[in-house]
Structures are given as structure tokens and as C-alpha cells.
């Protein structure tokens, strides 16, 4: 295997694919790669770079009808977790970066996120509706441990008694258990934990810089023990990679106290098709062709389907089998469990940061 073909450990994407908006692109020539190999040099930067940004708004209206949320908030753009299948990779192109390695290595930090959220929640025109942290990239990715922007956002939601949802695959969420418990007292928080596999080997290559499966299961258990509503997302289902784990995974998360489970079937939109194809040929060469063909079979012969209503769940025999397995698993392990509805009724009287007496 040549230098350009070697698997980059600790990263999902294995290269920087061209940005579709750039007029020019670059590639590594063999003579350059051979020189780097001879000198013992890395042919591309492997460190993570943090880039400060100061946007004008922070709460995004979600227009897609099949996402399951109305508003989202992302304190970070790009994600060091490096999940190979991540649909958010394409959004990095709007910032002038590649959806490949750049997405994992160049993390944009919204330094004024807290101020913008507070301004939004205090607006006279704003009416409370659940805002989900991490609609695009994980709010508990590694840089959060140092910057604590997500923690400050949660404190702001608590101050204004505003409902919030969280999506993460990082056990760092437990650091903020004190705030989550306070939010839960007024039915103001839901937590969604993403768990795609019970096998650590699969997790390491699929989601290289995420919390271990053991840590994530413990997170479900610890949050549930405090009464905080937890939904687990088995997303995405990838044929012949984790599709055989549906029943055991739902059983395990039910035993840990989760109230519900959701799923999506992988779709490789935009540049992700190229990135994923390169990755699977390096990590699972023995079944790469089979996996890619099975993905195509649920999306009408393509690696991607952009149609609302079908893009998340797929079509065809495989998609139907997945749907039936989840139906059976829910009946077996999660029957009669239900997540409480988030409370949107308190915010108006806390709109100025303290309870209005009159």
C-alpha cells in the first residue's frame, strides 16, 4: 500500500476531497509523496485547528419536514469526532473548506453563541419552541471540554426556562448533569444519545474520536437514573456494517433506562459518497462492494436520496426489513415507555431573566 493509500488512524475521512465551490483544486503527486516517505514527513497536517467566528445569528429555523425538530443551534461548525457518514460534512464547503479531513481538523467556534441565544430568547417576537443543540455538529465534541460553550448555553436555557433538546455521542454531557437536573424539574430537556453499534471495533473505524460504546451506554444509564428523558438514535443503519445489531442494541439501551429509540438509514449525499467509498475500500475491502450496492438498493440505485419522506428511511426490501425489526424491538423492549412533552409554557414569564410577578 502506497503512502497515499495508507489508512489514517484516528480520522474518519482519508483525504481532502475538492470543495465544489472552488475553481481550483490540488492533488498530491507521487514524486511528492515518495519524497515525504523517504524523509519521514507527514504529507498533510494532522493536527486540529480551532478558528474563532462571530456570527450574527445562532438559532436556525429547520425547514426540512422530516428532521423532527423546528429549531437548531450549533455552537461549533466542523466536528472532530470524524464520523465517516456525517451528513454535515457538506456544510463545511460553505466555509471554504473540504468536507473531508478539513471537516474534522478545522473546527469553527461561535464565540458569541451565548450572547446571541440570550438576545433571541429575550426578543418580544420569540415564542418558546424546543431548540435542539447539535442539529448539525456535536455540541459535546472534544473542544467543548475546554471552552464550555454548550454548558453556558444550557445555563442560559435554564435562566429563561426555555425547552432544549440535545443530540450527542459524547459522554461529556454528564459533566453538565447539575444543569440538566434543574431543567428536568420543569420538563425542559430531552437528551438524544447516538449509538450506532455495540462493537467497539466498529465504533473505532466508523466514529474514530467519539466516546466508547461502554461510555455511551453508561451515559444513557446515568441520565435515566436521574429521570432525564433519554432517546437513543441508531443512526445511521449501514447495511452489512451494523444492520444486524438492531435487536441486541435496542434490548441493551432499554435495560439502561432509555425511553425510546429512533433510526435512519445511511445516505451519502454530496461529497460524502466519495469520502465514504474511499474509506470503506480501506477499512473493509472484503465487503466494500456489497455494502455500497446495498446502500444503492435502498435509494433507488443511488448512494443518496434527497426526497423528503424517503431519504431518512429508504425504500425496498432491506428498508422494510429494518422498519419491521425496529417495530418488533420497540414492542419487546420499550413497550409502554414514552418521553414527556417538553414544556413551552414557562418561558414567557421568565423572558426578562427572572420570573415576572405581575
Quick gist of this model?
Helix content is 33%, strand content 13%. It contains 12 helices and 10 strands. 37% of the residues are buried.
Walkthrough of the structure:
The chain is of the alpha/beta class and 358 residues long. The protein has a single domain, classed as TIM Barrel (Alpha-Beta Barrel). Helix content is 33%, strand content 13%. The chain contains twelve helices and ten strands. It has a seven-stranded mixed β-sheet. Helix 6 links the parallel strand 7 and strand 8. Helix 3 runs parallel beside helix 5, helix 5 packs parallel to helix 6 and helix 9 packs parallel to helix 12. The longest helix has 17 residues. It is globular, with a radius of gyration of 21 Å. It starts with 29 loop residues before the first helix and ends in a 25-residue tail after the last helix. The model has no long low-confidence stretch (mean pLDDT 90). One of its GO terms (molecular function) is metal ion binding. InterPro entries: Elp3/MiaA/NifB-like_rSAM, MJ0683-like, rSAM, rSAM_sf.
